[in-house]
Amino acid sequence: MSIDLTTEFIKQNLWVSAPVWSLAAAAALVLLVGAFRPRSTHSLLPALGLIGVIVSGCVTVHASQIATAPLGMQSIDSFTVVFDLIILIATAIGIIISSPYVNRESLARGEYYALMMFSSSGAMLMGASDNFIMMFLGLELLSIPLYVLSGFRRLEGISQEAALKYFLLGSFASAFFVYGTALVFAATGTTSIAAALAANSGAMLTMGVGMVLVALGFKVALVPFHMWTPDVYEGAPTSVTAFMSVVAKAAGFGGLARIVAPGLSPNWHLLLWLLAAGTMIWGNLIAIPQQNIKRLLAYSSISHAGYILMGLLTLSRDSVAGVDGMSAVLFYLLVYTLMNFGAFAVVIVFAGSGDKAEDIDDYRGIARRSPLLAALMSVFLLSLAGIPPFAGFFGKLFLFSAAVQAGYPGLAVIAVLTSVMGVFYYLRVTVVMFMEEEPASGVADKPSVSASPTYGFVLGALAALVIVVGILAAPVLNWTAGGAESLTAGRPAASASVRYCALCRLQRFISRPFAFDCTELRNLRYR
Amino acid sequence: MNPYLPILFMLIIATAFAVGALSLAMFIGRPKGGNERKLAPYECGIEPVVGEVRERFPVKFYLVAMLFILFDIEVIFLYPWAVVFRQLQVFGLIEMGIFLAILLLGYMYVWRVGALEWQ
């Protein structure tokens, strides 16, 4: 037995995995600095973490230009790059948002940032893997730090409960993934995703793929597998909730995209259709009666998983529909990162020291005391609800129109109707903030809520981005479309390969009944 | 013969054994009356520990056991490497060096944060 170990081979391997190991190495550095340097220097750890994230971003972009050959385990195609950069942006925002919060709640430890970065490196591995084994590795690397992070308020029962619940159910989901992989291997003799799915299907392969989908559905909180979400989101420290609502979800969808892209057999599409519809309906429905803002955002994140899954379904069609759908998915993940982190950051500021005020009742009339914060919260909530001109609207628009174009009009109708339901509960918070009177009892002893300079900066930047990305949606969509293309490279092209710019999609979406043609604009997107 | 047939047999035998043992215990093992000896928890034939079973004990036991398992399992990975050491040559050596370096990082961390100290 000889193993081909040329220097070139090793080099390619190193570069292909560079995004993951560069971030993991930075995380290890943060961990060791946290352990070896005295407490007084720990305020520098988030800065060190941020530098690590930026370096990892540069390494990712650089590596993508060197390593192109698919090696079977992991690939660094354009999808990986776009996906990794979204994860890294989310990680950077997560670190910035965490640093004042963990100081306020006395959770500051070197491990905190290190765990966050380890988790992100797992997320990046999931989005890059071509092999079930690698994806499992990524899933575990993503999940285990998150279990620890959710229990970081370790003296509080609710946080311990969250950590234990997440750990037990998460390990169960991981077990599903491993067992599914084992069945896939038993049925096809390979753990490569593309090769396994190309094999003639049998009952064992179906069971295996189904189990893998269950595990990923758990991670992104699709509806039958969502039970853990509200409890964990409520109990975990708010900065961790924000982080995992974005990164774990993105990671799960990265993994799902890698599985759906090589071509699931058509029977799965009906199942994914049902999952998406169920998630949108149930998530939005149960969000309505929620009284706690973190639980409300938890159910909101469930419903957003439904919208995103709808975009993934387009990968089942030809390459044009696939690119449209996947670019919309990546666009939505980016926008969701911005607006969800924004909303959770406002929750952190409003909750005050000790995370006391987290019920929606606590938000009554708060606009009187701190109008700016209330306005910012409204921006994020309106964006989550999908109201123009915020980025959330365009994210939803691209997803919905992609679904219509890919031949899922029924699903798009459900999505539109359920997002109208969503408007109700997002607006309820805004109404409570602006139009209701504050309970008379507590007014005197409550000072106006003011954000620390860090939060002022982050919230301002996020709100600005939510508006700017909304207005300049086309270039951003272009960027994500580049990422989507590598996923659909092997798909059959559509007969009339017309690609629509963002503007055309809006026009087409509005004027669909009149069959308005805007082909003259079609080259805008792919100049 | 289907290669998965042994697994089916194992499944059947395992189920039969579990069901059989339990039902056998139900028929012949039902304690008729009982004395102090019979009701005491069984501990490999030695005298049971005196006092409350749910006694509190230091969580450090758990930590040490966990760390032991971690490092123990990781060191086991050295065995397959030792078997194919000649084929892997320098590549394997470097790869294992990286693996051990990561392990060492973890060890340094564990040591430094005081997880190995009992007090």
Blueprint (SSEs and pairs):
The complex is a heterodimer of chains A (527) and B (119).
Chain A lengths: L6 H10 L1 H19 L8 H22 L11 H27 L5 H19 L3 H19 L6 H32 L4 H6 L4 H18 L7 H8 L2 H23 L5 H22 L5 H21 L5 H33 L14 H4 L1 H15 L5 H15 L3 H27 L17 H19 L1 H15 L14 H10 L16
Helix pairs in contact in A: 2-3, 2-5, 3-4, 3-5, 4-5, 4-11, 4-14, 4-20, 5-6, 5-11, 6-7, 6-11, 7-9, 7-10, 9-11, 10-11, 10-13, 11-13, 11-14, 12-13, 12-18, 13-14, 13-17, 13-18, 14-16, 14-17, 14-19, 14-20, 16-18, 16-19, 17-18, 17-19
Chain B lengths: L4 H24 L7 H4 L20 H17 L1 H6 L1 H28 L7
Features:
heterodimer, A: 527 residues, disordered C terminus, B: mainly alpha, Methane Monooxygenase Hydroxylase, Chain G, domain 1, flat
Describe what you observe in this structure.
By secondary structure, chain A is mostly helical. In chain A, 73% of the residues lie in helices and 0% in strands. Chain A has helices spanning 7-16, 18-36, 45-66, 78-104, 110-128, 132-150, 157-188, 193-198, 203-220, 228-235, 238-260, 266-287, 293-313, 319-351, 366-369, 371-385, 391-405, 409-435, 453-471, 473-487, 502-511. Mean pLDDT of chain A is 85; it is low at 494-499 and 511-527. Chain B is mainly alpha-helical. Chain B has one domain: Methane Monooxygenase Hydroxylase, Chain G, domain 1. Chain B is 66% helix and 0% strand. Chain B contains 5 helices and no strands. Chain B has helices at 5-28, 36-39, 60-76, 78-83, 85-112. Classes of the chains: A mainly alpha (527), B mainly alpha (119). Chain A binds chain B through residues 1-3, 5, 10, 28, 31-32, 35-36, 186, and chain B through 4, 87-89, 91, 102, 105, 108-109, 112-113.
Short characterization:
The complex is a heterodimer of chains A (527) and B (119). Chain A has 527 residues and is mostly helical.
